[in-house]
Amino acid sequence: MLVEGMVVLVVDNGYGSFAVVREAVRGGPVVGWVDDEDIPVTNVVSDDGSNGSNQSYLDWHNEEEPVFWEIEQQTGKFCWVHAIVDTLEGLYAITHGERIKLSKQELVDNVFASNRDNYDEVTNTYSSPMEKGYHWIMANGLSLEADYGSGKYEATIQEPKARIPGRQILHLSGASLINDEHTILTELKKSPGAAVMSLALDQMDLQDTNAVYSIASNTRQGQYHAIVVSGYDDTGSRNAYWVRDSMKSRTPNEGHYRVTRASGVQSGERNPIMYLIFPYGVSLR
Questions:
Q1: What is the DSSP letter of 133?
Q2: Nearest-angstrom CA–CA distance, 257 and 251
């Protein structure tokens, strides 16, 4: 419930206003649908900060009115699939006020099946650009998890399954690839984004729940990992992104932690995030 004294960020995503509330006592976000004229609060911050205040904390990953399902442990080698589907499910919940479960397996079978020979024995992964997955969904849609194959994620490449006639599928209008920090922050106020970051983070012991992780400037490049960026946090000494990571057993808070933004990188460090992809225009039909 919204009460006097809470700090609210009202985001107009084209389907109505969505309030992101930060409670002073708990420090965490609470989200819920509201009408602009019915907000009984002070300190209302517009999405462009036009009242002179800048929102310093936003995280679509929360416990009160979640837009995500619980982070699934990655059982295969398909971090790209987890990032794409997690982002789409979050966006659908934000724009339509309802959580849905999409089929990761359909994406693996159709997008990664064409990549069978592109196997890296060093990293033990099948490589496929995240853009390829988004383009496939824009062209073909994506089934609900219960309507594809066995109804669960098998985490192995299988022959594509025929869709059940008459069942709804997710349609996606488009997606934008962004690597400019200012634009990323603007887009994060509307929805989470799927990100590519250096896999060097996975070589660290990511168990400090309060840390903001970065990458040493001398770390070898060339290995990358797909995650979801669920928000940002400027309340501490460093500008950071909140991320959701499918390798939750090897990361803090079971896959929910912070990494340095470009503006928070210090001497001897490198920005871990390469770019984000923000999908838009999701519907079931």
A1: H
A2: 7
